[in-house]
Amino acid sequence: MRVVVQRSKKSQVSVGDRVVGSIGSGLVLLVCMEKGDEVEQLEKAAKKILALRIFEEKNILDAGGEILLISQFTLAWKGDKGNRPGFGNAMKPDDARELFATFSDMLSEKVTVATGQFGASMQVNILNDGPVTFFLEF
């Protein structure tokens, strides 16, 4: 599982002309499920992300922030070989969709979560705060 975490002042995701998810202040998570990922990775990721003290020494819970959760299979390419991205390490879509929904549910137990549309071509508008961006692997 690979996650790009961006602190955001406000963000939204659209499919076509329709906004499908938006948040005010909080985090945008670009998430890639990889082959072999299981619920244990999701639990570890949720715990870590919710505890990150990146809001003036507060975590997202203490700061009252929200999360915009976006599926991003292209993060499966590590970029170490060749110039044509390959996504062979990405989890199969049906399995990834299920884990992505589980991850969303885990986070939703603690914080407001908006999502994009899994598998769709999305336009993501992020007003990065800082900018603050982290890359995590679980």
Word description of this protein:
This protein has helices spanning 39-51, 60-63, 93-108; strands at 2-15, 18-23, 26-32, 66-71, 113-115, 123-137. The protein is of the alpha/beta class. It has a single domain (2-131), classed as D-tyrosyl-trna(Tyr) Deacylase, Chain: A. Strands 1, 2, 3, 4, 5 and 6 form a six-stranded mixed beta sheet that branches. Strand 1 and strand 2 (18-23) form a beta hairpin. Helix 1 (39-51) crosses helix 3. The radius of gyration is 14 Å and the shape is globular. 33% of the residues are buried. The model has no long low-confidence stretch (mean pLDDT 97).
Keywords:
single chain; D-tyrosyl-trna(Tyr) Deacylase, Chain: A; 6-stranded mixed beta sheet; 3 helices; 6 strands; globular
List segments where confidence is low: pLDDT < 50 over at least 5 consecutive residues. none
**Overall helicity:** 10-25%
Might you state the CATH topology name? D-tyrosyl-trna(Tyr) Deacylase, Chain: A
CATH class: Alpha Beta
Overall shape: globular
Indicate the radius of gyration in whole angstroms: 14 Å
Q: Based on the structure, what is the oligomeric state of the protein chains? A: single chain
Order of helices and strands: EEEHHEHEE
